[in-house]
């Protein structure tokens, strides 16, 4: 395994913990007396209580400060505070462009480039900064921009796989829980956020890093044609070590037993920080639970995707 993080990285994480403690909107007893307008919102989770401040609380508000769940590592410094602004009609038109819409990661790139105003005190933002940003942070900003621009609720259309009843539920994005990298046990090491993946039964001992926008952009077109091949390519990008083997290739993953591959996939769903990805929608007709994979780019076009494959991932 790679060595321990440097003292600089240790200091950064300590600073992050102190920052997080100062950014709590509610005090430990759940009161809201210490609310400050300039305190960045750290999570999308908001209670449906008329006495609570929701996000957004006013459609006339054009800008909002938020705090990234992971943090952008840029020039040996970690940035958490981000200022976003609403989408305009021009941005929506750009997102609907055929070349952009064909790649979900490019869709997020275009959104962030147009709607992120500042990162920390940096106002000159480059495309490289957004592609270097981790996927959990990119997803989180997409959620925030969508809520700020179009509100909390996303109307969806899907069919219950059990009774085939057509459903039109509304998903409240403000209630989706968001986890920080620290809460999920990730650590900063040489510019990457990494975590050990271990399973004694399957004899797995490895190290995984969080994917970034560059990786997501490369994998997206592969996933459209073959989801399993896309998984193997993704694993080859993010698995830094597996059972003593450094940087296993996509071909090596393809030749692994499927129970190992399913375990890695399931482990990622459970351990990646940022907005909770998979949720269950309850069928109003039969009461069945429908697993729904929330992909951030879909929210910009008011659609959600449900997948029967997710049932097996959560039945282990």
How would the blueprint of this fold be written?
Blueprint: H1 7-22, E1 63-74, E2 77-85, H2 89-95, H3 98-101, H4 104-115, E3 116-119, H5 127-132, H6 135-150, E4 153-155, E5 158-159, E6 166-167, E7 170-172, E8 178-179, E9 187-189, E10 192-199, E11 204-209, H7 213-225, H8 227-238, E12 239-242, E13 245-246, H9 250-254, H10 258-271, E14 274-275, E15 278-282, E16 289-293, E17 305-306, H11 309-313
Antiparallel strand pairs: 1-2, 2-3, 4-7, 5-6, 8-14, 9-10, 10-11, 11-12, 12-13, 15-16, 16-17
Explain this structure.
- The chain is an alpha+beta fold and 316 residues long.
- The chain has helices spanning 7-22, 89-95, 98-101, 104-115, 127-132, 135-150, 213-225, 227-238, 250-254, 258-271, 309-313, and strands at residues 63-74, 77-85, 116-119, 153-155, 158-159, 166-167, 170-172, 178-179, 187-189, 192-199, 204-209, 239-242, 245-246, 274-275, 278-282, 289-293, 305-306.
- Helix 4 crosses helix 6 and helix 7 packs antiparallel against helix 8.
- The model is unreliable at 1-9, 18-57 and 301-316 (pLDDT under 50).
């Amino acid at each position: 395994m790679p060595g321990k993080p440097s003292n600089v990285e240790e200091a950064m994480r300590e600073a992050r913990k102190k920052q997080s403690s100062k950014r709590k909107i509610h005090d430990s007893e759940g009161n809201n007396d210490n609310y400050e307008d300039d305190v960045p919102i750290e999570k999308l989770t908001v209670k449906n209580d008329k006495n609570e401040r929701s996000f957004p609380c006013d459609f006339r508000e054009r800008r909002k400060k938020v705090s990234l769940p992971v943090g952008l590592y840029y020039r040996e410094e970690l940035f958490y505070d981000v200022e976003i602004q609403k989408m305009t009609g021009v941005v929506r038109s750009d997102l609907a462009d055929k070349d952009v819409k064909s790649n979900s990661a490019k869709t997020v790139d275009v959104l962030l480039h147009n709607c992120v105003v500042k990162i920390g005190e940096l106002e000159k933002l480059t495309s490289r900064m957004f592609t270097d940003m981790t996927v959990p942070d990119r997803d989180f900003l997409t959620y925030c921009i969508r809520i700020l621009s179009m509100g909390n609720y996303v109307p969806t259309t899907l069919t219950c796989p059990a009774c085939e009843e057509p459903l039109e539920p509304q998903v409240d994005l403000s209630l989706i829980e968001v986890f920080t990298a620290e809460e999920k046990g990730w650590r900063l090491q040489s510019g990457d956020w990494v975590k050990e993946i271990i399973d004694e039964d399957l004899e797995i001992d490895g190290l995984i890093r969080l994917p970034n926008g560059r990786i997501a952009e490369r994998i997206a077109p592969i996933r459209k044609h073959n989801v399993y091949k896309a998984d193997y390519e993704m694993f080859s990008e993010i698995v830094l070590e597996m059972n003593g083997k450094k940087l296993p290739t996509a071909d090596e993953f393809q030749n692994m037993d499927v129970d190992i591959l399913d375990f890695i996939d399931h482990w990622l769903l459970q351990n990646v920080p940022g907005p909770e990805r998979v949720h269950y929608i309850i069928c109003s007709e039969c009461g069945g639970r429908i697993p729904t994979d929330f992909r951030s780019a879909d929210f910009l076009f008011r659609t959600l995707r449900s997948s029967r494959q997710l049932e097996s991932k959560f039945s282990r």
